[in-house]
Amino acid sequence: MKVMVVGGGGREHAIVKKIKENPAVTELYVLPGNGGIAQDAICVDIGAKDIDGIVAFAKEKAIDFAIVAPDDPLVLGAVDALEAVGISCFGPNRNAAILEGSKVFSKNLMKKYQIPTAAYAVFDHAADALAYLETAPIPTVIKADGLALGKGVIIAETREQAKEAVHTIMEDKIFGASGDQIVIEEFLTGPEVSVLAFTDGKTVVPMVSSMDHKRALDGDQGLNTGGMGTIAPNPYYTEAIAAECMEKIFLPTMHAMNAEGRTFKGCLYFGLMLTADGPKVIEYNCRFGDPETQVVLPLLESDLLTIMQQIAAGTLAEAEVAFSKKSACCVILASEGYPGKYETGYEITLPADTSRIFVAGAKVKDGKLLSGGGRVLGVTEVADTLAEAVEKAYETVKTVHFANAYYRKDIGKKALAAEV
Ligand code: AMP
Ligand code: GLY
């Protein structure tokens, strides 16, 4: 069976390693992949946003199954384009990917179907937003409507910062057309939980919960990043909370999308905040999280490719989806300076066992693996307890080297504090 994965980060590397466990996979291509993924699959130099190029490649190779992992191609309609030429896919269609592609859409959907989320207002004009901010409660949260490389959310601690955010998003257009509309929403507090869920529009099967660490520096200081590390399961996410989320959030979201004629199939990511008033949705993503995937998939005991094929066939209800009772921790090694300016091109040395090293940004030059991105790689370890998984991950981190490596020293600390 010929399988193609679209994307090229640590998440895709984790998907590739898991997919390879299925012996039916005879050829595995990744578009564009990266120097680390090239150890496990054939990387093809076609960008994840090059929809025409992706479809042409899939046709040329007679790909049997395609997995579209990142948000950009999903929102651009990669799945629709592949399905139009008869290729079976894992991932939502464009009309469902809007759940991540437009925050205005997702907020309005939650309001219409009474799915718990922060109170909000939508603005099309900077002047109206600025007027609203004169009396809005502070802190407040300003969100660009469209995709913004994970940077489109600004938590404003003061009225001035909030107004500044409106100017930069709506007038300076730092996120381009993604900032044509903005959402201003209520600032919520509480532990955050990521829940990735398989769904085919009829059934929703949540995966093991996880916790991301989005800020660049220890103690949740510094700038927001794509994620500096993850742990799973998330100890704040108890069975009672999971049941409440299923009833009030997961099933209602699936039904809401069906009712809107936008059936969602693929991985639906729920970014949740456990507030004093119960769990609320902070964001939806239309895909696997990065680096959540790097802790969730190593705990999946069932065959990922089979589940993905069952979702494509609309038979998720028959799928076997079992997770190990163990814990996992992923520590991201980034280039010093990320998410700001950083240098790449430094040689990476890895331990002998790279089975749980997921490469996010690297290239191969003269047979050497060189750093090639802000996030360079993630080191995941699995153990019986979270404390052991964290300890093992940091032990393995010591065996990975490149010149300007930077990583947080406190991944899992908050979760461990919640356990006792
Ligand atoms: P996002 O890019 O949507 O994942 O948002 C980035 C981060 O901003 C989230 O992980 C939260 O920590 C924070 N955030 C987003 N919305 C809110 C909110 N309404 N209240 C408090 N924090 C928020
Ligand atoms: N780790 C957050 C995300 O994938 O959006």
Structural summary, described in words:
There is one protein chain. The chain has 420 residues and is of the alpha+beta class. The chain has helices at 10-19, 51-61, 71-76, 78-84, 94-101, 103-112, 126-133, 159-171, 239-259, 293-296, 304-313, 386-397, 413-419, and strands at 2-7, 27-32, 42-43, 65-68, 88-90, 120-123, 140-144, 153-156, 182-186, 192-199, 204-206, 211-212, 215-217, 221-224, 229-232, 266-275, 278-285, 327-335, 357-359, 362-365, 368-371, 375-383, 405-406. A hairpin with a 2-residue loop joins strand 20 and strand 21. It is built from 13 helices and 23 strands. Strands 12, 15, 18, 19, 22 and 23 form a 6-stranded antiparallel sheet that branches. A 5-stranded parallel sheet has the order 3-2-1-4-5, sandwiched between helices. Strands 6-9-7-8 form a 4-stranded antiparallel sheet, with helices on both faces. Glycine binds at residues 150, 212, 227, 285, 289-290, 292. The site of adenosine monophosphate has 15 residues, from strand 8, strand 9 and strand 17.
Notable characteristics:
420 residues, alpha+beta, six-stranded antiparallel beta sheet, five-stranded parallel beta sheet, binds adenosine monophosphate, binds glycine
DSSP summary: helix tally: 13
**Distinct ligand kinds:** adenosine monophosphate, glycine
What is the overall shape?
globular
The residue ranges in which pLDDT falls below 50 over 5 or more consecutive positions are none
Largest sheet: 6 strands, antiparallel
Q: What percentage of residues falls in helices of 4 or more residues?
A: 25-40%
Strand content: 25-35%
Cα(first) to Cα(last) distance is 47 Å
- Based on the structure, what is the oligomeric state of the protein chains? single chain
Which structural class is indicated by helix and strand composition? alpha+beta
Mean pLDDT: 97
**Total number of strands:** 23
Q: What gyration radius follows from the Cα positions, in whole Å?
A: 21 Å
